[in-house]
Write a structure and sequence with these properties.
The structure is a homodimer of 306-residue chains. The first copy, chain A, is α/β, with parallel strands linked by helices and 306 residues long. In chain A, 36% of the residues lie in helices and 25% in strands.
Chain lengths: 306, 306
């Protein structure tokens, strides 16, 4: 059940109504690995600059994340900084400095070319396609993307979609990609381009899974305090793919559990800055939150009376 | 299990991206009654003008809605007209002509002063309080309100809240009333003012029930076509209160079912203009949709392996 993730490893500077964090650990591969590492062995492929505090990733190694595919190169690390507005539902990017990430060409180590599960974090679809060329077809390929690639590399993205099993995007991305406002139609449009499954993330409103037959909806977990939404989507992905890799089952029932597990990890991620909450999280807390998700939505069939 | 509703009975002129309907049946008491009538006897108290096509309400009478409390007075009926934008998530009011509704003073007939269930549709909180003075304390008082009253009659509204069991509002109303952006905090704020229960309606994102112990979340039902959102909230209320009145049970499990029943009725309401869909709806369709809601959110506990 070995799981490969290719994505960004970054330093984020974040302002929210609750405070500010400077050069905190970020990046899609970081959040994904932190979440997935509760469930299975994770191999991370990415790049950082000479200035990256690699020791800060030791909590991942302690959870058996293999960092041998993380290159450290001369130059600066990828840095992102942004400010969230009062309701945390929108943010403004202050600065993006790609640094060594601008020249990132993923090199998949021989030892992980046979990984059975692959997550392609949000990077250039040309690079995502290049990763697929370097691996033996995994059992499950999950990929993320963003509006920037939908607009600037649409053809490459559509070629990529033919070769992935699950596209995981947020609602605005699903709408922009498909040209359909209705999310059900947007998901059907995407499914017709290749991915048998589409996961649409709706932020505080939860996440929906669409497969051929199934529509499953996990609500957002009601939290009294949302501290920093950064990385929630990648933590969701890590919980989702990690759970599938651990259980090695793709039945509809297990896909439902994977979505809830992803939602649980996403809900923890936002409780502190950056990966702080995922760093100290325990598997018992995850299982407890999944139980609380069940209490949130479970109901028994109607009782017909009278 | 007799249920009393006091609210508006109106003629709506609606434009959506899918068409236009002129002087179609509308109003909170109309939608509420159409939905609740699948579950129990409903007594409607309201007012219409001399120009109201009362015969158009015969489908309600056929479902045993008692219209003897519907006054017909000289003057024009309440008319509302509005335009929805392309995504149906926001609308612009073109015109509101109150007509006889401006002088509406609810008179509760003697025969229904002992109603066990009461829904106070969205009218002036002073009138809602006046209704409470005219009835013997029902088992359950549910009330709706809107931003207009929150802003213009806040003190009356707060006095009303002390005397109701369930406040049913949408997310922006809950936020404005409480001054809390976070919905969990907003609900707790409202609960502290009287209503043991708060239902927060989130449109396409579903609805949440807050009680002392319980938080329950029913997602929006994924529809390929949403035709006209008008009345969805009142149809939700009719399903929710009607189901509780029918089953005469306020256990947490039954409250969950009531929320889902309300969500089902709301999801039907938006499938056609005005009350058209509720007019032709059957109870079998309602139960079928509740089953589909269950398929949408149900999952079994995690299987721990490895």
């Amino acid at each position: 059940m070995s799981l490969l993730v290719v994505g960004s490893v970054a330093l984020d500077t974040i302002e929210t109504p609750f405070g500010r964090a400077e050069d905190t650990l970020g990046g899609s591969a970081t959040f994904f690995s932190a979440a997935a590492s509760f469930f299975c062995k994770v191999h991370l492929v990415g790049v950082v600059g000479h200035d990256f505090p690699v020791a800060d990733l030791s909590f991942l190694e302690a959870r058996h994340v293999d960092l041998s595919g993380l290159e450290q190169r001369p130059g600066e690390s990828f840095r992102w900084s942004g400010v969230y507005n009062f309701d945390l539902n929108s943010r403004e990017t202050l600065e993006t400095r790609l640094g060594v990430f601008a020249e990132f060409r993923p090199k998949i180590p021989d030892s992980v070319r046979d990984a059975r599960w692959l997550f392609l974090g949000n990077i250039d679809p040309v690079l995502q396609l290049d990763v697929l060329r370097q691996v033996n077809r995994p059992e499950l390929v999950v990929c993320d993307t963003m509006n920037y690639w939908i607009e600037s590399k649409r053809d490459d993205l559509l070629r990529l979609l033919e070769r992935v099993d699950v596209l995981m995007v947020n609602d605005s991305e699903a709408r922009e990609l498909s040209g359909e406002y209705n999310l059900l139609k947007a998901a059907r449009w995407i499914q017709a381009r290749g991915p048998g499954m589409v996961v649409v993330k709706k932020g505080e409103h939860g996440a929906m899974l669409f497969t051929g037959e199934l529509i499953f909806y996990a609500p957002g977990f009601p939290l009294e305090e949302v501290f920093d939404p950064t990385g929630a989507g990648d933590a969701f992905a890590g919980g989702f793919v990690g759970y599938l890799a651990r259980t090695e089952s793709m039945t509809p029932d297990n896909l439902r559990r994977a979505v809830v597990t992803g939602s649980a990890l996403g809900s923890f991620a936002v409780e502190r800055f950056g990966v702080e909450r995922l760093r100290e999280l325990t598997r018992a807390e995850i299982y407890d939150r999944v139980t609380r998700f069940r209490e949130l939505t479970a109901f028994e069939q109607l009782v017909e009376t009278g």
